[in-house]
């Protein structure tokens, strides 16, 4: 009985790690000339609930970028985005998050916070 419990826990862990690896894949911002970003990613795994909760704090130098685009897991069930500590509207479909920047945000440094659960 203990072997099956351990095997189930191992399978659960593998699934969670698979989701985690997909989410880390989205940490790359769109390929845009002159864009630099620093990520601080926090992940909480809840194996008993088969759930992952994450937060990505980004510091970006936009240099004329009008749209930020991120690749995310399609399994995301909740998603919130803040730009410079203000909630922002965004579009999310087919695993792509698109965030249109206002003209005053297109140059200089921004803080973008993305919160999600999957």
Looking at this protein, list some descriptive labels:
118 residues, alpha+beta, Immunoglobulin-like, 5-stranded antiparallel beta sheet, 8 strands
Quickly describe the structure.
The protein is an alpha+beta fold.
Descriptive overview:
This protein is of the alpha+beta class and 118 residues long. The chain has one domain (2-117): Sandwich (Immunoglobulin-like). 20% of the residues lie in helices and 44% in strands. The protein contains 1 helix and 8 strands, in the order αββββββββ. It has one helix spanning 2-25; strands at 36-46, 51-61, 67-71, 78-83, 86-87, 91-93, 96-100, 109-117. The strands form 2 sheets. A 5-stranded antiparallel β-sheet has the order 1-2-8-4-5, covered by helices on one side. A hairpin with a 2-residue loop joins β4 (78-83) and β5 (86-87). The radius of gyration is 17 Å and the shape is elongated. It starts with a helix and ends with a strand. 16% of the residues are buried. Mean pLDDT is 79; it is low at 25-33.
Write the layout of secondary structure elements.
Layout: H1 2-25, E1 36-46, E2 51-61, E3 67-71, E4 78-83, E5 86-87, E6 91-93, E7 96-100, E8 109-117
Antiparallel strand pairs: 1-2, 2-8, 3-7, 4-5, 4-8, 6-7
Biggest sheet: strands, sense, closure?
Answer: 5 strands, antiparallel
Question: Could you please say which CATH topology applies here?
Answer: Immunoglobulin-like
Number of domains: 1
CATH first level:
Mainly Beta
């Amino acid at each position: 009985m203990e072997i099956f419990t351990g095997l189930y826990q191992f399978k659960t862990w593998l699934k969670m790690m698979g989701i985690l690896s997909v989410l880390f894949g989205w940490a790359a911002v769109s390929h845009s000339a002159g864009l630099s970003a620093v990520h601080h990613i926090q992940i909480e795994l809840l194996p008993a609930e088969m759930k992952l909760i994450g937060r990505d704090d980004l510091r970006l130098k936009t240099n004329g970028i009008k749209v930020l685009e991120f690749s995310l897991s399609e399994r995301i069930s909740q998603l919130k985005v803040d730009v410079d500590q203000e909630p922002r509207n965004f579009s999310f479909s087919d695993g792509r998050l698109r965030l249109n920047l206002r003209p005053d945000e297109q140059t200089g440094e921004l803080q973008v916070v993305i919160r999600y659960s999957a």
